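re: ur question from earlier - yeah i can do the single chain one, its not a big deal. heres the input i used so u can compare w yours
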Amino acid sequence: MAISRNALVAGNWKMNGVSASLAELKAIAEGVAGGAAGTAACAICLPATLLARGAEIAGQHLLVGGQDCSAETFGAHTGDLAAEMLRDSGASLVIVGHSERRADHGETNAVVRAKAEAAYRAGLTAIICVGETRPQRDAGDALEICGAQLEGSLPPGATPDNTVLAYEPVWAIGTGLVPTVDDVAAMHAFFRAQLKALLPHGGDALRILYGGSVKPDNAESLMRIDNVDGALIGGASLKAKDFLAIASVYA
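and the output i got, formated as tokens:
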């Protein structure tokens, strides 16, 4: 992990969480405020129903974000949320292009890019997700697939301040399967080289997160890999104890 890039540990609650779940968010916020994450920035991407209340609970030390946004601003788009709405609710960032959105809703790289641009428009940081499936990895196509996703999803206006890249191998999300340290290192080195080529004046400073079955017992080995600048955490972020244990790698 390069010293010049401040780590980010972000949780993605996905379609989980009701009012009672805010007790866990409060515990996370208190832990971060108390120094559990050390130098790392911490964020929880909440379901939209909890975002405004979550932002009040999170306070100054824990960021909150959305899990998706529309590329549109306002208007006749029933059920969609504009990035400006997320910002108004207290969000600082938003996930775009998660593999579950790409698979469940057919989101293309062009759609993801448009959503990232919408995030910029609203003053949000976009966490752009890329990752390969197991058949794609087994076929030796992981670099080609992920490289195309990155190039197609990254807007020309991306900077280290408004963009974070998250590598989440689809086959590792929620399965308990984790790539080897060497595999993660190779993928993140590939992304770093691609970012430098695409963003000559910012590619070296843009943070790259790893996501996919990150847990307290493997966080140390994953977060210490070169070019891994933090984590995007799914299930483990629903429990304050687990999230803070992961974030404590940076304490």
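The beta strands are 8-12, 41-45, 62-66, 93-96, 125-130, 163-167, 208-211, 230-233. not sure if urs matches, ping me
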